[in-house]
Amino acid sequence: MRVLALDTATEACSVALLTDNGLVGQFAEVERGHAEQILGMVHAVLAEAEVSLSMLDGIAASVGPGAFTGVRISVAVAQGLAFGASLPVVPITTLEALALQVMDAGAQHALACLDARMGEVYWGCFAADTSRIVVACGALQVGPAAQVRLAGVGGYHGIGRGFAAYPQLAALPGLELDPRDARALPNARDMARLGAIRLLAGEGMDPADLLPQYLRDKVALTEAERAALERAAAAHGAA
After folding, report:
1. How far is residue 153's CA from residue 138's CA, in Å, rounded to a whole number?
2. Tally of CB atoms within 10 A around 177
3. Backbone phi, psi, residue 15, to 5°
4. Does 238 score more than 70 pLDDT?
5. In a 3-state reduction of DSSP, which class is residue 149?
6. How far apart are CA 112 and CA 6, in angstroms?
7. Distance (Å, rounded) from C-alpha 197 to C-alpha 192?
8. Is 190 strand, coil or helix?
9. Residue 219 CA to chain centroid, in angstroms?
10. Residue 12 pLDDT exceeds 90
């Protein structure tokens, strides 16, 4: 099976191609400019594997959660490529792709967190699964770090930039965190693997039906909300 995956939803911009010969990919951490880089990465990865779009079985598209603009770029580029080559797409979330990274290291449960800005985190709990690699233990959520809870008791491994932004998350009872995992970002390599499984299960969809998963519809804080957050941060620093 040949599956192209792409992700621009966070600071990471990545593309990967899964074939019977293995995985090839490109990954870059950038502050902006995802739209200018992603298509070049796609062409480079396809050229390295000597594969054309018409030879693919489908595209695994990152649908967020993440930065609003980044999520829209990821979805739009996946749709454009899929429409042009008459390919099915499968949606992959940034959080489940993160969870797969620690499950590859042997974890059976993962808490994936990304910095959602505005004093909040995107988060989700996941379990290892023999047939689907990783499955969500409930709905993905967004909210203050203080509201993050594990689904079940203990045995969780944390991963994602949300832990770097909100170090208090590492103190959750039953959670283990490797400091290196607190800096982790999603990678299209993991999305390609998840996408292949879903395509084989018949879960490919028309690219027109691909939708972003924002989790919230608010892009920025009001001035009053920013001021309140600044006061809270100042009070926390003085405590």
Report:
1. 14
2. 19
3. -140, 140
4. no
5. coil
6. 19
7. 9
8. helix
9. 18
10. yes
pLDDT at 227 over 80: no
Q: Name the helix (H) or strand (E) containing 125.
A: strand 120-129
**Count of CA atoms in the C-beta half-sphere (13 A) of 111:** 26
Domains, the chain, in order of start with CATH, read: 3-93+186-209 (3.30.420.40), 94-183 (3.30.420.40)
Question: How many other CB atoms sit within 10 Å of the CB of residue 43?
Answer: 12
- Chain mean position to CA 43: 22
Tokens 């800005």 sit at which residue?
A: 117
The burial class, CB within 10 Å (0-12 / 13-18 / 19+), for 53 is middle
Q: How many CA atoms lie within 13 A of 206 on its CB side?
A: 2
Rounded to the nearest 10 degrees, the angle between the axes of helix 188-200 and helix 94-103 is: 100
| Distance from C-alpha of 210 to C-alpha of 200, rounded to nearest angstrom | 18
31 pairs with which residues across the strands? none
pLDDT tens by residue, 136-181: 999 999 999 999 999 987 799 999 999 999 999 999 999 999 999 9
DSSP 70-101: HHHHHHHHHHHHHHHHT--EEEE-HHHHHHHH
Least-confidence region, from 95-99, 106-110, 153-157: 153-157
| Predicted confidence band of residue 108 (pLDDT cuts 50, 70, 90) | very high
Q: Phi then psi for 115, rounded to 5 degrees?
A: -70, 120
